[in-house]
Amino acid sequence: MSHQIWNLELCCLKPTIEPRATDHISQMINLIKVLIEKGHAYVTDDGEVLFSVLSMPNYGRLSGRNRDEMILGARIEVSSNKRDPADFILWKPSKNDQPGWDSPWGFGRPGWHLECSAMSQKTLGVPFDIHSGGQDLIFPHHENEIAQSTCANSGENFCKTWVHNGFVTVEGKKMSKSLGNIILTKDLINNYTAAPVRLALLN
User: Fold this and answer.
1) Which helix (H) or strand (E) holds 202?
2) Which of 35, 54, 160, 186 could form a disulfide with 41 if both were Cys (CB 3.0 to 4.6 A apart)?
């Protein structure tokens, strides 16, 4: 059964826009330039560009974490170039065997959080109405999106409402590739109608 058919079976409409990060490199570079100009980011001697967390007084507002919790819970590359342990990557150098693009800071690639800020700003504008995602993305991903997007836009709110879903579980464990307990929706609708599948996922 094709992707299109099972989406139709579940009454899910195809998104109007499905942006790709690699099509938005120029927007990411411009976003970094703005953050540097406004004093929210800095370039290291090694060609990294880091966001300065201390430049945003209410950093951590979404997750409600204190500073120590944020430093311990952040998925950040270890770098001796950081001015503060909580600072996060906006641009990092790429080796020849790694994907990369030319930039004012050398050949490299954007940080994960930056990709989402650039794509949402390009396609939806700022602020947009609703940002959703899994609860495991609240920190650091969504917290960092807010920081870089808000600071780049002179304090304007990034989005109006945040919605976070819980985990889909299988026999009490989070469904994940690493556990090998993935069940595909297209397989479920071979045995069940759309309504109970949608209800189970909403639960």
Assistant:
1) helix 194-202
2) 35
